[in-house]
Amino acid sequence: MTNIPIESLSIDGEKPHHAPPNNWKDYFGFSIDHKVIGIQYLVTSFLFFLIGGMFAMVIRGELITPESDLIDRTVYNGMFTMHGTIMLFLWTFPSLVGLANYLVPLMIGARDMAFPRLNAVAFWMVPVVGILLMGSFLVPGGPAQAGWWSYPPVSLQNPTGNLINGQVLWLLAVAISGVSSIMGAVNFVTTIVKMRAPGMGFFKMPLFVWAVFSAQIIQLFGLPALTAGAVMLLLDLTAGTGFFDPSKGGNPVMFQHYFWFYSHPAVYVIILPIFGIFSEIFPVYSRKPLFGYKVVAISSMLIAVVSGIVWVHHMYVSGTPGWMRLIFMLTTMFVSVPTGIKVFAWVATIWGGKLRLDTPMLFALGGLVMFVFAGITGIMLSSVPVDVHVNNTYFVVGHFHYVLYGTVTMGLYAAIYHWFPKMTGRMYLEGWGKMHFWLAFIGTNLNFLPMHPLGLQGMLRRVSSYAPEYAFWNIIASIGGFLLGMSTLPFIFNMVISWMQGEKAPSNPWRAIGLEWLVSSPPPVENFEEIPIILSEPYGYGKSEPLTANLESHS
Fold first, then answer.
1. d(CA 394, CA 59)
2. CA-CA 20 to 30 A from 143: which of 74, 271, 279, 507?
3. CA-based torsion, 272, 274, 276, 279: positive or negative
4. Distance CA 311, CA 309 (A)
């Protein structure tokens, strides 16, 4: 339980096996320090976020007019396929894994992850995924054009006749990403179960750790289905098998089951850590204990359990029988119960608190507001009659992006600002942070809110031209998309300048409670000189009970 790996100790004056990097160049090397790997994940994924965002701006540039007059239709198909793929497999998943990599060992009183080398290998598979996807622009026929879900038989088409084509590279990338995520899930679950500090029972863990634990359990159960489906589709495309090819007796709808059995729970894999971030940030900036800690913790596990029985709601119009539609409509609606518990707990935490509207709190509040809106439209989409009406329209796109950008990316920004002093030892520029928030918040709503009336009016997704009556809302959405793209500029400036020249950060600039705030900024090589002994639940703001027995405690 004390978790002091033998190889981490200094022998004959040699420095420990993962000494902290001396300069930025050290982050480009192979490291088994969970803190270095966490930052490697975050920076790498943000670079791909910028690439995916540029693709989105090209898409919105095409859609600002009804005519298809900016790029060729096949290029447009490749753009929206690569935009979705990059934003999911190279931004949201790796960035959240990076944040969890950095924080989880610190939060549970461990010196590192359970399997440090496996941790490093899992990260270095991410650039391989990126190289494969970016390399697909250079092969004959260009990148995959079947969407980020790659349904057959569309994804089985190969007009160029080349064995190496964009769709093959896409499937290889997804399979490698799946293997990397499974390796990470094994590591996180083992670390959380086996390496908590003495006294830290499950109901003394921070809620971010609960959220990561729940999300990684979903990964372990769901990811093999997607990885297997990708491999089977790859064999259909390259070896002539007929798993999903209807011309060879295959069943293309079966691929949808493989895909959505993981890819809807994947939404909870993404959103649960964001819920954990909200649960960490709201008590700090409200100066109040988190309301209903144990119920919020249990709700995370409940979401993980229910997530395994909701996938068919993506397939209401795929020949799904009525009785199955009814079952999955009810299970999908049930997810709103544990989710609603969390929302009420956060509101109760904020209510009557001494609010400090610093940048992390602004992003967390903005993410919460947009999540509530996304939750309302999500309940609408879980209903069979509504979903059948708006299926394959921009209403679905708007809902999904309120989840993925309005909640997840805003939550990630909140986390980066909140833990930036801990990671870098420097304070960020508050004014630039608030400018970033308002540009992102306004841009998000301008971009994605108009998609809901467009969908209700019947505008289909994945089209590069449309009827002129849809032009007004598309112009508003495109302006919002360009503003959203510009909103990253103050963030980049703030992070670079602050990391290089920012004011030195104290160990605990926010007066927060948690093990990660009881060590220096940035943390020492092995995190803790002495493994802490946990005495009380987290979030004891305003209480007199100490968090630990042998480290400085904060009230």
1. 14
2. 271
3. negative
4. 6
CA atoms of 126 and 184, how far apart (whole Å): 12
For residue 464, how many other CB atoms are within 10 A of its CB? Answer: 20
Query: Helix 93-108 and helix 410-424: axis angle, to 10°?
Result: 50
pLDDT in tens, the chain (555 residues): 333 343 333 333 334 444 455 566 667 778 889 999 999 999 999 999 999 999 999 999 999 999 999 999 999 999 999 999 999 999 999 999 999 999 999 999 999 999 999 999 999 999 999 999 999 999 999 999 999 999 999 999 988 888 899 999 999 999 999 999 999 999 999 999 999 999 999 999 999 999 999 999 999 999 999 999 999 999 999 999 999 999 999 999 999 999 999 999 999 999 999 999 999 999 999 999 999 999 999 999 999 999 999 999 999 999 999 999 999 999 999 999 999 999 999 999 999 888 999 999 999 999 999 999 999 999 999 999 999 999 999 999 999 999 999 999 999 999 999 999 999 999 999 999 999 999 999 999 999 999 999 999 999 999 999 999 999 999 999 999 999 999 999 999 999 999 999 899 988 999 988 889 988 889 988 888 888 887 777 887 766 566 666 554 443
Backbone φ and ψ for 510, nearest 5 degrees, come out as -95, 0
**Integer distance in angstroms from the first to the last C-alpha of the chain?**
26
- How far apart CA 329 and CA 382 sit, in angstroms, is 5
Alpha carbon distance 438, 504 (integer Å): 26
Which residues lie below 8 Å from residue 63, measured CB to CB, with a gap of 6+? Answer: 464, 466, 474, 477, 478
SS3 289: coil
Amino acid in position 355: L
DSSP codes, 130-180: HHHHHHGGGSTT-B--STTTT-TTGGG--TT--SS-HHHHHHHHHHHHHHH
What single-letter amino acid sits at 363?
A: F
- Residue 283 gets the label, from left (phi > 0), alpha (psi -120 to 50) or beta, of alpha
CA distances in angstroms from 363 to 26, 290, 406, 422, 439, listed in the order given = 31, 18, 10, 18, 11
Give residue for tokens 């002495």.
Answer: 530
* CA contacts within 13 A on the Cβ side of 386: 14
Query: How far is residue 53 CA from its own chain's centroid?
Result: 15
**Beta partners for residue 460, in sequence order:** 393
**Residue position matching structure tokens 């540009």:** 439
Task: Enumerate helices (H) and strands (E) in the chain, giving the number of each.
Answer: 19, 0
As a residue count, the chain comes to 555
Residue 192 belongs to what H/E stretch? helix 166-194
Nearest to 515 by CA among 98, 285, 99, 200: 200
Whole-prediction pTM value?
A: 0.92
- Burial group, residue 201, by CB count within 10 angstroms (0-12, 13-18, 19+): exposed
**Residues with Cβ < 8 Å from 121, sequence gap 6 or more?**
183
- Helix/strand/coil for 3: coil
504: helix, strand or coil = strand
